[in-house]
Amino acid sequence: MRKVDTSRAAKIVVVTGKSGSGKSAWTKKQISRSSRLIIWDIDDEYSGAVKGIKRITNIKELASELKKTVRGKFAFVGAVSDFDLFCRCAFAWGDCVCVVEELADVTSPGKAPPAWGQLVRRGRKYGISIYAVTQRPAESDKTIIGNASLLHVCQMQKATDRRYMAAEMDISQTEIDQLKPLEYIEKNSAGEIKRGKITF
Ligand SMILES: Nc1ncnc2c1ncn2[C@@H]1O[C@H](COP(=O)(O)OP(=O)(O)OP(=O)(O)O)[C@@H](O)[C@H]1O
Ligand SMILES: [Mg+2]
After folding, report:
1. pLDDT for residue 58 is more than 90
2. Where would I find the beta strands (DSSP E) of 102-140?
3. What is the value of pTM for the model shown?
4. CATH number, domain at 98?
């Protein structure tokens, strides 16, 4: 039987912004110390950027690697059709950080794969932290935004996305409209707002 700990704090981070706005760069910094890490790495960029990450392209191989791994970091580079199984793998592994790059490719406002829903709604009790990264929040799964413990917004291209995130964060849209390259604004579940800029 797996251990369930209902007292664990949920950590669900939604990272949004246009292409090149600093989403992945910021995410890579956040996860740099994680010892159990699993990444849906659609652009195949994590194994070259974060030390110690093993790149895997076959979903069965991912499942068998996870089963025998206590501490390990995996970037999965596969087909969109693998996403549901990927989420099952992350849920079964537990006690990990799970990054999903470009959520809008694998979910939509009306439809999210069942295993993704399970990961978002029940992952907390199994010690799973989620980073969901997307250029297009208004076109992604809405459950994750409602459950997020941190909304991290980088510069955004589309007015629909700027309006959407401003409403979700309950801040003035001007705050998001005025973001410059590599700047961000974020709000946590305690309602605290933080502004910053990515440096390399
Ligand atoms: N290690 C680095 N050193 C210097 N600049 C970097 C580094 N990594 C990324 N950048 C630059 O920072 C910017 C943001 O890159 P990043 O990959 O975070 O964008 P992104 O928001 O994830 O975009 P996309 O949606 O296209 O994936 C880009 O201009 C990129 O060239
Ligand atoms: Mg990126």
Report:
1. yes
2. 129-134
3. 0.96
4. 3.40.50.300
